[in-house]
Amino acid sequence: MGAAWARELGGRVTSESGLSVRIERDPPAHLLPFERFFRGFADLPPVRELFGRQTRTVLRNLKVEFFASKFGYMGTSDVDGHLLISTHHLKTGEFRVLYLDLYHELCHVRQFRQGKPLFYPRLDYVDAPSEIDAYRKTIAEGRRIGMTDRELVDYLRMDWLDAREHRRLARRMGLKVPARRRRAARNRR
Q1: Structural domain includes residue 125
Q2: Angle between helices 163-172 and 129-144 (to 10 degrees)
Q3: What CA–CA distances, in Å, run from 14 to 20, 23, 26, 27, 29?
Q4: d(Cα 189, Cα 154) in Å, to the nearest integer?
Q5: 3-class DSSP state of 89
Q6: Is 11 in the same domain as 38?
């Protein structure tokens, strides 16, 4: 029964080990328009610097996939360049953090469109060229909107970075890192 049913749907559904369950392996993705949820970005000078004359077209065509999880923030798909955004982060994050996170991901969208890799599995997160480039632009944007070095150092605190990696990233971004203190990683709120 399982194999016939799977063939009927073009082989996208599978059943294994004689279990009477079926697994849809190619569910429809619900990608939504970026501009439906994030307005005004096409008019921002730093975003226009990223995409030039194509800014409006890029943002009009950019898709967003929201996911419901208390873990994670935002990311960019290395398959098709769409954004992945945690609804929890969107609901609970501080406005400037959300703004900088979106700008950071738009930097990755640009990299994707240029054919550059987004992930470097053999490098630490803080050493990946894609992250260094995106954070340099993001920190410059943070300064442009009036954030202090202390606020930007705090912005760079992420759950998955240990204290040494955080300091290394902050220093690499030209930020003055306060003396070492034992501090728990913030949940970017």
Answers
A1: yes
A2: 70
A3: 11, 5, 10, 12, 19
A4: 10
A5: helix
A6: no
Cβ pair 27, 12 in contact under 8 A: no
Number of independent structural domains in the chain: 2
Q: Residues with Cβ < 8 Å from 113, sequence gap 6 or more?
A: 58, 81
- Give 8-33 pLDDT, tens digit per residue: 444 456 555 667 777 777 777 789 99
pLDDT band at 90 (very low <50, low <70, confident <90, very high): very high
In a domain, 186, yes or no: no
The pTM for the full model equals 0.82
Tokens 């632009």, residue located: 137
Among 156, 100, 99, 148, smallest CA distance to 126 is for 156
Residue 8 domain boundaries: 1-28
User: Which helix H or strand E contains 53, and what residues bound it?
Assistant: none
How far, in Å, CA of 67 to CA of 86, rounded? 5
Same domain flag for 43 and 129: yes
